[in-house]
Structure formats: structure tokens, C-alpha cells
Amino acid sequence: MTTLTLGAAINAGLRNSLANDDRVVLMGEDIGTLGGVFRITDGLKAEFGAHRVVDTPLSEAGIIGTAVGLAYRGYRPVVEIQFDGFIYPGFDQIVAQVAKLHRRSRGTVKMPITIRVPFGGGIGAAEHHSESPEAYFAHTAGLRVVSCSDAADAYVMIQQAIASDDPVLFFEPKRRYHVKGEVDDRASLADAKPMGIASVVTSGSDVTLVTYGALVQVARDAAIAAAEEGVSIEVIDLRSLSPLDLVTVADSVRRTGRLVIAHEAGQQLGLGAEVAASITERCFEYLEAAPVRVTGHDIPYPPAKLERHHVPDLDRMLDGVDRALGRPNSLSGVEA
Amino acid sequence: MTPSDRVATGLLTRADGFVQLITPEGERRADPDLDRWVVDIDTEALRGLYRDMSVLRRIDSEGIALQRQGEVGLWPPLLGQEAAQVGSARALRSDDFVFGSYREHGVAWVRGIDPADVLRVWRGAASSGWNPYDYGMAVPQIIIGAQSLHATGWAMGAKWDGSDAAAVAYFGDGATSEGDVNEALVFAASFEAPVVFFCQNNGWAISEPVGLQSKQPLAQRGDGFGVPGIRVDGNDVLAVLAATRIALDRARRGGGPTFIEAVTYRMGPHTTADDPKRYRTDDELADWRARDPIARVGALLAASGLDLETLEREVEVEAARAAGALRASIATMADPEPMTVFDHVYAEPHSHLDRQREQYARYLAQFDDGASAQTEGGAR
């Protein structure tokens, strides 16, 4: 065991992957000499060389499109998109090429590309630097979408993503980069929890609160606060957004009878809608109340001085829990 | 200074617009830069190129006929572009890798791909017709220009591997307006990737003339990126072969990318769904018909004393055989089994899709022919 920040855990995972497989190459803007704007690739160019850790031109379609060609040649590219809002110029290459080439080639061409995306708000950043675009990719067949929430998961999941023969969108909760956690750096990757399985991070009996990424810690805090009022919240970290581990969520909801889904992304057609619909299909007769969504507003990400009104916080999560429990809440008495 | 070094210093072209070795009238022209690259192309080899192009033309027209008869959903004809495709593809080695668009039936033919496997995709019977690694040719690309980045990435990998193999990206004049092609030029130049950008300027991007894509000859497009260009008569199979060999030689010797503009013309529609009469004139068509890529090789061969009529008869037999084989392939091109819609979406199990697969298999099993659900991957 060792203690690492979430960012350092990803760095350590990348280092292992580079060392274990010489077909792994990192590509992105400023990832080499600078070590990335968040320093996630710090020191890796010096250790592995400029052909393994590649500073690219400023071109998202270029980075992802050339990664496709490298994958055609048997490489396993790990791409860094500098900020969430910068992924859109590369969108076509991701959803029309990376996602589809295995299918299009009837399984003969593998696309083991990992696309790392620092995502979400809460760091007082400028426009295009705080977005949560994960639903676009979870909606696209052929892609896997995951998000880590702590150092231990980050260390394991980045290595699992790189080892996967499928393309993986790897969403990193940027406001958690500097948070330390215990990392088991000696454990075998083969024994680790699979990338596609959700975690029950806090056990509880009254409400199931499902989230991922940076909001997992907020949900933990909400569970502690709720416990003081006698409400027992089970917090689930989805970890994987495609596929969703609905088995773990459904098991929990069958015990609690109530479901709250929280994410920073806007509500309309987001992950919350998918989880609510899927769990309602599976657990309708177990539900004591309609599933509740606690999400960002359906707005462009607001200026930094307003972001605390957009990103769900502990109080908004507790308000959602109250809605699921039928306790007095912000929507009490409001007809839909 | 070698010819490929000369390319490295800038644009290789001529006062009359492009480099050329065979005129439309079938006269052999001398060219100080190109000649030495085709010294091995004797009369026999020239006959081979003539045969390639003629058979290809027939396969292409068979593809149109099959579409008109409802056997194929759509077909993008290559009539008029035979020299651009055969001349460039004949310059390649087996370990080079082609990233084509959707019209490169001729390149596929030269790479040894069965035309039936090309047709299969247009019929809608398969997502792809061949294994890219068997032929050194990626599956076709519909998104305009996306493959230029794939070729560049492959070439970067080839260079890192210490290989002297090269990648070739085929795209049209319309694609040069796309970001992907321009980003590919940036990457290829920056990493000195062994990639040849082979632009078939066929005059039209569906209904839009090339003048809408560029105010300059497209071969100059590379200049700002530091990628030298060659502007070649795309209807001259010998000149195209020479130009591609020059570009490949640069790539293999570490010289980096080259942009080739093959000036040609799409004689037919963009696809069988298009009506070019709405946007171009009979005069323009007639002008280009006079520059036919096959006729000029025939004239050159005849001038060298070869009995053209005999060659034409031989080629006709071979073309008829290839077209017949393509037509016959339809009979064995069964519709895919229903459950294969779920195949190959992921390389590894994906619980959401696996559940959908199981549910749809159950649904199908209710019907009399539900047994068809038991197909590849259906039991996963």
C-alpha cells in the first residue's frame, strides 16, 4: 500500500502500462516535456522517450485520427484530451471512427484506444474547461465509458482501460486530482475488480444514491449528514457508464426501494434518465417512489462565480433524497 | 539532385499544369524527372496496365448494372479514374498500407481484393468485405477525408517500428476542404511520416466544382504545411505510376509526406443516386472523353507496333469473365443472419449489449424460424 493523489495514481498506472507493453504510446498536447497541464504525465517522456510519450500538434481530430491509424498498426494509443470542452473537434473521429471500426471491419481491426478526459467543474476555470460530455459517448455503441472517483480506482482502472481491446473514454474527475488515497500498488491487475462493475461505497437501507466521478465524495458526505437525521443512504459509484452495472444498482434498490441519481451533466437525456428508466423497468414493484434526478441545469456551463449553483452539492443531494423519501423538500406541493 | 530531392524543394509540375508521360493522343513524352522511374515499364508491362484498366472499367460498369437491377443498393462509379487508381496502386509494395475512400475499387482490384468483396458492402450484405491485414488495405471510408489521419497515424507507427513501409491516403478534391485532411498534413509534416496523400481531383464533389474547394491547384495545398506536391495528369497511367514511385521513395528514405494531385475526371455520376446532368455540361464531358486514360495507352501500344485489335479481344474475354464472376457472386451472397447485428460491436463482452442480444434472441425464438437466432455470437 502507498498513499497517492488521484493524479499521481493515474501517472503510476500509465507508467506501468508503458513499461509492460511497448505498443502503448501516450499522445496529446503538452503531455511530454510539460507533463500535461495537470501534470498527469509528469516524468513519463523523460523515462520512456519522445516516441512513447508524444507531444502532438494542437488538433483533437488529428490526435484521435492518428491514434486510429496507430491502432490499425497494432499500437495501443492513450490519448489525452486537455479539457472536457476540447473534445468536440475530435468528436467525429471518436464516434464515427474509433467506435465503429471494430464492427466495420467485422472484428479484424482492433481499436484499443484509451481517451483520457479531465472532466467536470468546481475548479473556477474558464469556459470550455468544466464540462461533462460523458453522455454523448455512453450513447455511442462501440465505446466504453468509465470514470474513476478515487486514487485506488484510478490506478487500477487506467491500466484496465489500456489493456482493453475496446476503445475506452476515461473520464477523470479533475477537481479530485489532488486528493490523496490509499493505493495497492502491489496487487495483481488480474485480481482487481473489473472496470465494468459498480462499487457500493457506503452501505445503507433507506435510499440508493447513485453517482460517479467527483460527486462520489459529495454523496459520501451527504450520507454522513443524512445519518445524523436518521436516514440511511447507500452510495453507489457507477465507475462504468457504458456498460452500466445495473445489477449492482438494482440489487440495492430492491433493498432500499428508493433511487436518487446525481451527476454534474445536464438533466435532459443524461445518464440519470438512463439509470432511472432501466431501474424502473427492473424494479418497478420494489420502488416506493419515482426515481429522482439531481443534476446540473440544462445550460451551458456557467461562469466560475455561478458554478456552485450548477454543480450539485451536498444540500442539493439531500434535497433529492428528501424527494425520494417524500419528506418536505424544495418541490413539496409543486405539481409536475 | 535526384527527382525525389527535387520534389522536396517544392512543387513538381509543368508550365501546362501537370507532369505527363503519355499525351491524350497516345504520344510518349520525355520528362527529365519522371522518365527514370518508369524505365522498367516495357511494352509487356504497359499491356498489363492497359489490361488492368480495361477489366476494371468493365467491373465498374457491372456494378452500375447490378444497382440498376436492384441487386446492389448503391454504387460509386470510377469511370474515367482508372489510370489514377491503377497507376498509383501498381507503385505500392505488399507491405505498404492503403487507406481509401469509397471509390477505390480500382485500388482494391490491384491489391488483389475480389470485386465481389467490394460489392458485398454496397449490397448491404456485410459491414466489410475483406480483412485489411490480408491485403494491406483498410476497409472503405465514407466520412470524407477521415482516412487521411488514419494513414498518417499508421505511417507514424511504421516509422517508429523502423520499417520502410509507407501508407497511402486516397481522397477526392472535396475532402481537401475537410479539417481532417488539413490536420493530417500538419501531423504528417511534423512527424515526417512516410505517407503519400493521393488526391484524385476528379473535378466534382457531387455537384460542387473543384473551384469551390480551392482557388489554387490542390497540389499547392501542401506548401503551407511543408509538404511538397506533385501535380500529375491523372489520366496518364505511366505518369501517375512515376509520381507515386517518387513519393514512395521519399517516404521510404525518411523524406516524409508528399501530396500528389492527380488531375482526372469522374465521367459518371458521384453515385448511382446522382444525376450529373443537373450540374455539368455535355461539352465538358466531351472534352474529358477525349482524354480517356485507356484509349491513350492503346494508341501508344499501337504506335509501337502492337496489334491493338488482338489485345482488345484478349482483354474483352478477361473483362467478360471478371464481370460474369461478379454477377455470379450475387447468387451466393446470402443475407446475413439476424443475430449478427450484434456481432463485433465490442471486442470484449458488454453487459448492456449482451442483454439486448439475449432479449432479441428470445423475441425471434417465438417465430417458426427462430432457429436462425442461433448464429455466431448468439449464445454469448
Automatic annotation (TrEMBL), chain A:
Alphabetized Pfam families for the sequence: Transket_pyr, Transketolase_C
Domain Transketolase-like pyrimidine-binding intervals: 4-179
Cited CDD domains: TPP_PYR_E1-PDHc-beta_like (cd07036)
MF terms in GO: magnesium ion binding; oxidoreductase activity
Cofactor: thiamine diphosphate
Keyword Cell cycle: no
InterPro entries reported in the protein's UniProt record: THDP-binding, Transketo_C/PFOR_II, Transketolase-like_Pyr-bd, Transketolase_C
Keywords linked to the UniProt accession: Oxidoreductase, Thiamine pyrophosphate
Keyword Membrane attached: no
Protein name (Swiss-Prot/TrEMBL): 2-oxoisovalerate dehydrogenase
From TrEMBL, chain B:
GO biological process, one term: branched-chain amino acid catabolic process
GO molecular function: magnesium ion binding; oxidoreductase activity, acting on the aldehyde or oxo group of donors, disulfide as acceptor
InterPro entries cross-referenced by the UniProt entry: Alpha-ketoacid_DH_E1_comp (IPR050771), DH_E1 (IPR001017), PdhA/BkdA (IPR017596), THDP-binding (IPR029061)
UniProt KW keywords: Oxidoreductase, Pyruvate, Thiamine pyrophosphate
Highest rank taxon of the organism: Bacteria
Cofactor(s) needed for function: thiamine diphosphate
Record flagged with keyword Oxidoreductase: yes
Domain (Dehydrogenase E1 component): residue spans on this chain: 52-319
Keyword Oxidoreductase: yes
PANTHER family: 2-OXOISOVALERATE DEHYDROGENASE SUBUNIT ALPHA, MITOCHONDRIAL
Protein name: Pyruvate dehydrogenase (Acetyl-transferring) E1 component subunit alpha
Organism expressing this protein natively: Agromyces aureus
Record lineage: Bacteria, Bacillati, Actinomycetota, Actinomycetes, Micrococcales
